[in-house]
Each structure stands twice: as C-alpha cells, then as structure tokens.
C-alpha cells in the first residue's frame, strides 16, 4: 500500500464522532395515490417536468432512480446502496442531475449533462460527437463504469453505448470505487442513467428545435394509463429525431433517431413490472481531428473528408425491472437487460505535410464492430433487528455476458490539396477488412450489504466476490486465449447525525478491473486494483430544498499496465496512479423554477509508477489533460406570478477549467479557460391561460465564443465554439 498523507485519516476520525438515523422505508401502499385521483399536475413539477414518482416518495431500489426530487435537488438515490437510502446517509459522495436541470440546460449529449457535476471533467479530447467522454476524479468513467437503470453497459474498441439525454429521468454519479456492489469498474465510481418510466396519469410533451450548424430536431414524450386496465397498466413513448451539422463543416453531421417505449404492469401495490426498450441510430463523422504541428499546435487542416468519413452506429436494448414486496421487511427485485451495439466507420487522416504545406498525405481506416450483452441482477432486501441495532440487509447475485467482435482495414488515400482544399472531390478506395477478432466475457458476482443503525450511527458494510472468465481469439484460425480472474472487493462506511440534516461520514472502498494480455514471460496480467479513503460532511438544511456537501478523497490504483522497462515491446502490470483532492457542492431549489447548483473540485492526479513508451520514467508527473481546479455554477430565476415579468425565466452558467498538462512528460500546459452558458425562456400562459403549456426557450453554450484547444497525451483538439438552440415546447 502506498503511503498516504495524514489528512484523510484525520477527516475520518473527525467524521466518526457521531451518527445518523435511517428513516423507515415508505410502504408501497403509502407511495401510491389512488389512480382515479391523479391529475397531470400531480406528476409535473413547476417547470412542467414529468416525474416517475407520483408524490416524491422513494422508488424501487436497484435501478428505480432518484426520488424526492424538487427542482435540481434529490433526497434519495438507490445508486450508492441499491436500497432507498437518503443521499445524506450514503457513505460516499453522490450527485444527481435531475430532469429539470436537463431541461433548463437543454442538454444534447451525455457528457454535457455532467458539465456542472463536481469532480467531473468532460471534453478532454475537445469537440467529439462520436463518443461521450467523462472523467471522474481523474479516472475515465464511461469505459467500465457506465450504468443504465442499475445495470452495467459494456463498451469496447470504438463501440460505446450512447445515451440520449431526453430519454432520461435523471443521472446519478457515485464518486469513488464501487466494486463492492457492482463488480469490476473504474476507481471513478458509477454513472447511472435512469430511463423515463410510465406514470399513471395522461400527459404529453413536444419540443421543436432549431439552432447552430443547421440543427433541426423534434422531441416527444407521451404516456399515461392503459384504458380498460383498471389502473394496473401504464405506458410511455419517448423519441428524438435530429438532423444537424457541426462546426467542422465539410459535410460533417450529427444525426440521430431515437425511440424508447416503456410499459408498467402493477397488479397490486406490492408488485411492479416495468419493461424498458430503445432503438437508436446515429450518424456522425468518423474523424473530427485537425492536423497537429510540432509544439502542440492545432492547424486548420481537417483530417477527414466528406467522401469517406461516416460513423454509423445502431443500438437497441430491451429489459425489465421487477419488484415484489412480501412485506415491509422483505422485498425481492430482479433487473434484466439485453442490448446490442453495431458500428461501421470509415475515416481519413492527414499523416504528414509536404515541405511547402500545400499537400497533405493521407491514410484511411475502415472498422466494423459489434457488441451484444445480457445482464441480470437479483436482489433480496430485508429489515431485521438485533437488540437495539436495526439492519437493512441486501443480498444479491448478478451475471453479465458479452460478446465483442471487430474487423479492421487500413489503406491510403489520395493527397489533399491544402490550398484549394478539395475535400470530397476525389475517389477514396475502401480498405479491405482483415480477419475477425472476437472476445467473450462472463462475470458472476455475489454480494452482501448491511446498513446497521444504532442510535445516531449508521454503519455500512459491503462485500462482494467476482469471477470473470474471458476468451479471446485474434483470428478464426488462431488459438483461443483464456483468462480467468477472481477478486474480493468491499466498502465500509460510517455516518453520524451531528445535528438535524448535518451528517459527517467516512468510508473505505475498493475496486478492480481485469486486464487482458500477457507479459514478456507469458504470464497473464493480474487485475488492476484500487482503493479509496473518503471523508466528508453532508448538510440538508431542515425545512428547505437546499443541500450541500464536502468530500476529501485519496485514491490509489495499482497494477495498471505500463511499458516493461526491461523490454519496451511488452507491458507489465506494475504501474500505479494516485488521485487526491476535495470537492464542494451545493444544490438548491429556492422557489418554483428558481434553482442553483455550485461545485468546486481540486484534483491532484499523478503517476506513482509509470514509464513512457520511450522508456522515460513518469514517476511523480501529473496525468495529462486533468485540470487541478474546476469551478462551475448554474442559476435559473423564474419571475414570480405577481411580477411585471411573470412567465419569464432567465438563467446562466459559468464553467472554469483550470490549467492542466498537455503531455504526460509535463513539458507543456493547457491554459485555463472560462466558458459561459445562458438560458432565456418564456411561459405563454402568463399572457393568457389559453396558452397553458406553451413555452419558448433559447439556450446558448460558450456564449462568448471562446476559441480554445485542449491537449492530452501529446495530441491537441479543438473545443466547441458558441452554439445556440431555440426550442418551442408544448406540454399537456
């Protein structure tokens, strides 16, 4: 174990000075209104957002999503414990991005949704409509820690499942290792997206949008009870259709079709079955990069070509969430999903320039990939007492299987004339695809958790054992490579109620990630492991919807791959990195339509043992692309009904991203940048009640059109310029 500074230990000792009472889970019959009494208003907030929980009571754990939502604040989330535990009782830092915040900012991409979350870094690789890219506390978060409705979504190669933000009810971010409940994953934590689910009241919503770079988009969200079902069935259908260009120009596009049906059957107050589906097609450029000159300078020579630059991705999912309550003290749940992602990508890139910088010499690539996964999670939750100690017990077994295959081909493209920029004017041959490579992985995990309450203390103990089996075949004729890994991970956390709503806490958690391949001596790489010490305090101001939190953390990830210092042609699993820092966050609903979110993060993320591919030691260097300081804030203000400006909502956001290093050798720094976002909206019902439900909204990001580049690992990327989207919204 790497030596640690005494600060986290002192914070843990301070946090262990007191405890927190855990509320009794709401009974199923208490969380449901009578179906014939539900109106549209009962499922909509002041801004018109449809909530999946009729009265703000807790939804089902293990994928049910946040509840107790008011504006930008949420009081409960099952992500941290797979039970309906209030956020202030969870022994790790948790943030929730609610539907109202997603609507106010008119979020268009998943990484954009996390732009105001503490500890999160987005767009490290600049503007890129192909993928979502998020780092939490310095670690990549979406490759191994992406979840939807409590179930992990695998990504590999060029294939990563894309989230359509309009189809989400909320996004929950659990920061720090979470393998004790979820199995293999990044030390970043868990990012869990909650799908929109049916509600037992009729409603509808349509968005018509237009904006920068030829954007034309339509969104719809419809649902309600099934007629003739006696209030036992409900449906929902959400969809998005977009045709848009990008600031890169030259025939680049960001088009999408998304359709997501959902159906709920609730034969009694104790039993619920919800079926969740989705079909999505996306078409984006396969290359978004500009040629780099030496010295970390981005030229204006775009590497792609409209004649050969499409990335087409199709994905689907179908699954269900089942819950049955035998009693208030015994609940069973089962969540299942099957999904597939298929990709075809053709791209060009500029490899070099001639001496006069009039010709760019290019190469091509052609990829075809497919990934199919099934995931199943079974849970039993029980409430028991042993003397004065009340226990919330959770036991589960989950299983995940995926198959990933890909074929690749590479070739040459005719040179591009950089003076005339004759993009799209030449025939570019499609490379021949190579043999198929296939990877299959199965993971089985068994986990136990006890949340024990004694007086004002809540002690959370979590333990899990995983078995991972992976088969790789490089070509159909090659030998099958088999690698098996096992790991035990866990978490221990302590919460204490110091005063009403004021809860200090401390925790220790571990994580692991299997690593494919062998060393120079032919020994399989052992899994990468990580652990975290975290301590902090959470405060929910009594009688308000204002909550704040502070967290200090120290994470070490060990046994990561690095070039073998004795043989640079191979790798060894002996590297390590360390992330230390602290975060502060506040969210508040101050009045209907008036919300505030503020976040500050400090991250010191360094290599402890690492070697570059040139053999140079990187020990003690900062990991490139990760800013040390970030500050974000977003405020909306809805003028009250008695005001002269009633119906008008104004909002604005600030995102400060501090300097970071452009390369892992720490020779060049990215400069700090501050970006501004804005919102103007008007509710036409303020003019005349007959316009009830009609709203106009304009959103702008990077309002002052700050032109900037970001470099990571020695390569530099262009940031997104100013973007404006206007929306006309009708809700009923």
Kindly give the count of domains.
1
How would you characterize the largest beta sheet?
A: 22 strands, antiparallel, barrel
CATH fourth-tier homologous superfamily: TonB-dependent receptor, beta-barrel domain
Assign the CATH architecture.
Answer: Beta Barrel
Individual helix count: 5
Q: Estimate percent helicity.
A: under 10%
Instruction: Please report which band the strand proportion falls in: under 5%, 5-15%, 15-25%, 25-35%, 35-45% or over 45%.
Output: over 45%
CATH C-level name: Mainly Beta
User: What is Rg?
Assistant: 26 Å
Characterization of this structure:
This protein is mostly beta strands. The protein has one domain (6-731): Beta Barrel (Maltoporin, Chain A). The protein contains five helices and 38 strands. It has a 22-stranded antiparallel barrel. Strands 3-9-10-7-8 form a five-stranded mixed beta sheet. Strand 19 (330-353) and strand 20 form a beta hairpin. It is globular, with a radius of gyration of 26 Å.
What is the fold's blueprint, element by element?
Layout: H1 6-15, H2 28-31, E1 67-70, E2 73-76, E3 94-98, H3 99-104, H4 110-113, E4 120-122, E5 134-136, E6 139-140, E7 146-148, E8 151-152, E9 168-175, H5 179-182, E10 189-195, E11 203-211, E12 215-225, E13 233-243, E14 255-268, E15 271-285, E16 290-293, E17 297-302, E18 310-327, E19 330-353, E20 359-386, E21 389-417, E22 437-454, E23 457-473, E24 481-496, E25 502-513, E26 528-540, E27 546-564, E28 567-591, E29 594-609, E30 629-638, E31 648-657, E32 660-661, E33 669-670, E34 673-683, E35 694-701, E36 709-712, E37 715-718, E38 723-731
Parallel strand pairs: 7-10
Antiparallel strand pairs: 1-2, 3-9, 4-5, 5-6, 7-8, 9-10, 11-12, 11-38, 12-13, 13-14, 14-15, 15-18, 16-17, 18-19, 19-20, 20-21, 21-22, 22-23, 23-24, 24-25, 25-26, 26-27, 27-28, 28-29, 29-30, 30-31, 31-34, 32-33, 34-35, 35-38, 36-37
């Amino acid at each position: 174990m790497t030596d640690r500074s005494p600060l986290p230990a002192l914070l843990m000792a301070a946090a262990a000075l007191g405890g927190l009472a855990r509320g009794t889970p709401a009974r199923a019959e208490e969380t449901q209104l009578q179906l014939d009494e539900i109106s549209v208003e009962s499922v909509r907030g002041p801004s018109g957002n449809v909530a999946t929980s009729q009265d703000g009571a807790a939804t089902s754990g293990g994928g049910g999503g946040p509840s107790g939502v008011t504006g930008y604040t949420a009081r409960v989330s099952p992500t941290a414990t797979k039970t309906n535990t209030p956020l202030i009782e969870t022994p790790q830092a948790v943030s929730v991005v609610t539907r109202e915040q997603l609507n106010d900012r008119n979020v268009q991409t998943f990484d954009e949704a996390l732009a105001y979350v503490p500890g999160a870094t987005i767009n490290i690789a600049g503007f890129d409509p192909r993928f979502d890219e998020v780092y939490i506390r310095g670690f990549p978060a979406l490759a191994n820690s992406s979840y939807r409705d409590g179930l992990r979504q695998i990504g590999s190669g060029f294939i990563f499942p894309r989230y359509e933000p309009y189809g989400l009810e909320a996004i929950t971010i659990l920061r720090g290792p979470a393998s004790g409940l979820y199995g293999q994953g990044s030390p970043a934590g868990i990012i869990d997206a909650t799908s929109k689910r049916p509600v037992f009241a009729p409603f509808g919503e349509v968005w018509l949008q237009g904006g920068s770079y030829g954007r034309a988009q339509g969104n719809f969200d419809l649902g309600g009870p099934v007629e003739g079902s006696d209030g036992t069935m409900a449906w929902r259908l959400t969809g998005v259709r977009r045709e848009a260009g990008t600031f890169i120009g030259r025939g680049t596009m960001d088009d999408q079709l998304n359709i997501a049906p959902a159906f709920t059957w609730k034969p009694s107050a104790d039993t619920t079955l919800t079926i969740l589906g989705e079909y999505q097609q996306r078409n984006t450029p396969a290359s978004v990069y500009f040629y780099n000159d030496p010295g970390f300078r981005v030229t204006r020579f775009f590497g792609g070509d409209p004649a050969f630059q499409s990335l087409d991705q199709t994905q689907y999912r179908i699954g269900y969430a089942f819950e049955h309550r035998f009693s208030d003290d015994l609940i069973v749940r089962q969540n299942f999903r099957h999904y597939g992602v298929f990709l075809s990508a053709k791209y060009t890139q500029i490899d070099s320039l001639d001496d006069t910088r009039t010709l760019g010499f290019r190469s091509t690539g052609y990829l075809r990939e497919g990934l199919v996964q099934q995931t199943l999670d079974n849970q039993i939750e029980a409430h028991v007492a042993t003397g004065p100690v009340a226990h919330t017990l959770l036991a589960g077994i989950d299983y995940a299987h995926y198959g990933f295959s890909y074929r690749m081909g590479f070739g040459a493209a005719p040179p591009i004339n950089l003076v005339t920029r004759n993009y799209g004017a030449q025939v570019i041959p499609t490379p021949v695809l190579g043999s198929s490579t296939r990877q299959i992985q199965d993971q089985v995990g068994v986990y136990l958790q006890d949340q024990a309450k004694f007086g004002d203390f809540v002690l959370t103990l979590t333990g899990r054992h995983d078995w991972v089996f992976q088969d790789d075949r490089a070509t159909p004729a090659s030998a099958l490579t088999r690698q098996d890994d096992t790991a035990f991970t866990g978490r221990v956390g302590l919460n204490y109620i110091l005063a009403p709503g004021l809860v200090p806490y401390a925790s220790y958690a571990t994580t692991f990630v299997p690593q494919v391949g062998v060393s120079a001596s032919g020994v399989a790489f052992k899994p990468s492991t990580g652990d975290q010490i975290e301590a902090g305090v959470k405060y929910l101001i009594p009688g308000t919807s204002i909550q704040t939190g502070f967290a200090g953390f120290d994470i070490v990830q060990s046994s990561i791959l690095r070039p073998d210092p004795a043989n640079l042609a191979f790798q060894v699993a002996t590297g390590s990195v360390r992330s230390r820092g602290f975060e502060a966050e506040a969210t508040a609903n101050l009045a209907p339509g008036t919300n505030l979110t503020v976040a500050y993060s400090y991250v010191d993320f360094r290599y402890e043992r690492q070697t570059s591919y040139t053999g140079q030691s990187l020990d003690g260097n900062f990991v490139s692309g990760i800013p040390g300081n970030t500050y974000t804030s977003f405020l909306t203000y809805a003028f009250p009904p008695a005001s002269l400006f009633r119906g008008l909502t104004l909002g604005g956001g600030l995102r400060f991203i501090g300097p970071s290093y452009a390369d892992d050798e720490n020779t060049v720094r990215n400069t700090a940048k501050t970006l501004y976002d804005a919102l103007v909206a008007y509710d036409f019902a303020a003019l005349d009640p007959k316009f009830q439900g009609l709203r106009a909204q304009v959103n702008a990001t990077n309002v002052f059109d700050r032109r900037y580049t970001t470099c990571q690992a020695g390569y530099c990327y262009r940031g997104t310029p100013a973007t404006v989207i206007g929306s006309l919204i009708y809700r009923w």
